[in-house]
Amino acid sequence: MNHSIGNNSCSAYLEQWMRDLQAIDRYEDLSDAKLKGWKHLRMQWLSGIELHFNKESTEESTEIKDSLQQVSHSSLHLPNSPLSIGVRYQIVTACYDALFGKVALYVEKQLMHMGYGPPPVPYAFVLFGSGGRKEMLPWSDQDHGLIWQTVEHESQHNVVDQYFHIWGNCMVNALKEIGFTPCSGKVLACEAMWRGSLDDWKRKVEQWLHIADWEHTRYFSIALDMRTVYGEVHLEGEWRQHVRQLGVSSDFAAASLSALVRNQQHRKLAHNAFGQLIKERIHPYVGQVDMKYRIYVPIVQLVRTTSWMVDDVAHPLSTKERMEGILSTWPDGEERQNIRKLYAYWDDILAIRWMCGTEVLDGMWNGTGMIDPDQLHELQKLALRRSSQCIEKWSKILNRRCERG
User: Fold this and answer.
1) What span, in angstroms and rounded, lies between the C-alpha atoms of 82 and 2?
2) I need a labelling partner for 64 at 20 to 30 A (CA). Which of 50, 58, 133, 308 fits?
3) Which one, of 288, 260, 297, 295, lies nearest residue 398 by Cα?
4) Which one, of 150, 142, 188, lies nearest residue 169 by Cα?
């Protein structure tokens, strides 16, 4: 379906991206030109994706086509040969990680210019969602937070929290200027839920696991995808170690797994009783398949829950890496064969997800998560149907495991 390319081609592209980022560094630190430069570079990236990587995608809107024409003179040259889907996601991760690091440094300088001084304590800017799992699409939205070193005196806590509240607002606004849509669920560094000291984060996860209702279990699931892209990685590592200790505690283990399994039952089914893919009936997506919420997200949830069950939470992992970890520990049998099947289809799922439609709203790119099945060839449709069946079987596997304790 997709043909891999050599490492040299991938490296050459990433080196060019980094050179362009470096060139933007020459702009005045707090000028609008810097944000415009990053936005223009990102538009070059998006135009390249639409025009070179994604020839089978849905037709773009007039607004998107106009945007692409504005950057058609881009100096950002893309490989002519098709990229494997794994390489595509690796490139997005590497490019956006570098960009977010630049923007984080820009925010630090912005706060110094505003009179708040340098960061009062070491901290980490972290991604959640697809960014945390290294599965961002070029048009993915903002999902991020902050974790900082715990201060010794309570009197310092409010001062530090106020600084990072402002930091979070500045980051959200800067990324909006570059064209990243803020998360509709408000998983953002400007929100108190998604920022705090290391001790704050430890208390959060204990509370989430203790209450273990639908909402708090959802928060916990989101947090498991945390990945540092700027700052002190050890803070995230210390938090993960605390989470792992909770996972093996008799007070939390069984209850947390049951809650995670219950939560992943709340999903849109992908196929009907006859094995046919379920299509949307609501405008403007009539006749399309909700790839995001019927296939991709349920797989992510199942894999993340199973990783928690097999104690594989020490490092931030992609869904594919998590499946590899599960397969390395799961005993042979029918259950393992089902997991292996879904693992085999995963690259097809990522490729179809990449093909889903995009739209521009208020100057920011968004993925619809919808795919027109007429775009897909029969092997891709088969991969969706088989993956949907595997989702149902895997869900039953986890239910049985919970019932057995």
Assistant:
1) 6
2) 133
3) 260
4) 188
What is the pTM assigned to this prediction?
Answer: 0.90
Residue type, 38: W
What's the rounded Cα separation, in Å, for the pair 373 and 144?
32
pLDDT tens, residue by residue, 56-92: 433 333 433 444 344 333 444 555 556 788 888 998 9
Tell me the pLDDT tens digit for each residue of 363-385.
788 889 999 999 999 999 999 99
Distance CA 86, CA 79 (A): 15
Decide: 188 and 144 in contact? Cβ < 8 Å: yes
Alpha-carbon distance values, 365 to 9, 61, 70, 182, 318 (Å): 27, 12, 15, 11, 23
Cα–Cα distance for residue pair 358/362, rounded to 1 Å: 13
What is the percent of the chain where pLDDT is above 90? 62
What 8-state DSSP symbol labels residue 194? G
Q: In this structure, are residues 289 and 373 in contact, taking their beta carbons and an 8 Å threshold?
A: yes
Which of these, 54, 94, 52, 89, lies nearest to 74 by C-alpha position? 52
Contact 140, 129 (CB under 8 A): yes
Least confident among 4-13, 182-191, 247-256:
4-13
The secondary structure of residue 3, as a DSSP letter, is -
The three-state DSSP-derived secondary structure of 358-392 is EEEECCEEEECCEECHHHCCHHHHHHHHHHHHHHH
Place of tokens 């933007």: 24
